[in-house]
């Protein structure tokens, strides 16, 4: 089971990997590492054309994570009028997006998803009911009288 401290440590290790840290001392100097990535980003902006890329992130927590990661590197995520809330637009060099930003986002997202899944399962099991398994699948077909309800999240976008 992952604790919050373990998650934080894992996120620092992921950040160190993408920031190019090679020693424990460098990992502890997070500000210097972020400055190195910003310098690399700045060099990429001078040597290659920046592109505008739209990301569709329907999950609000993933959207917030992505925006925070962009801001960490001095990038400014935005959205145009009438674009959905799930859209995040970013201008940056393609090499930085593909080589650093997006892979780092995916790794952090995966670590957070794992932690949140474990925490949710534990809370449901301990506070709601001990069995939180998926509903069983029954043979046959649904009746015409069965009501279908949507998720409240369906109405957010």
Question: How is this structure best described in words?
Answer:
By secondary structure, the chain is mainly α. Helices cover 55% and strands 9% of the residues. It contains 5 helices and 2 strands, in the order αααβαβα. The chain has helices at 4-19, 24-28, 30-47, 60-72, 94-128; strands spanning 50-56, 87-93. The protein has a two-stranded antiparallel ribbon. The protein is flat and about 65 Å long. The mean pLDDT is 81.
SSE diagram, text form:
Layout: H1 4-19, H2 24-28, H3 30-47, E1 50-56, H4 60-72, E2 87-93, H5 94-128
Antiparallel strand pairs: 1-2
Helix pairs in contact: 1-5, 4-5
Q: Strand sequence of the main sheet, in spatial order? A: 1-2
For the sheet with most strands, the description reads: 2 strands, antiparallel
| Radius of gyration from the alpha-carbon trace, in angstroms | 21 Å
Annotation, overall tally of beta strands: 2
Q: What overall form do the CA principal axes indicate?
A: flat
Question: From N to C, what is the helix and strand string?
Answer: HHHEHEH
Low-confidence spans = none
- Would you tell me the structural class of the helices and strands? mainly alpha
Helix content: 55-70%
Straight-line distance between termini: 33 Å
Number of helices: 5
What's the pLDDT, averaged over the residues? 81
Strand content: 5-15%
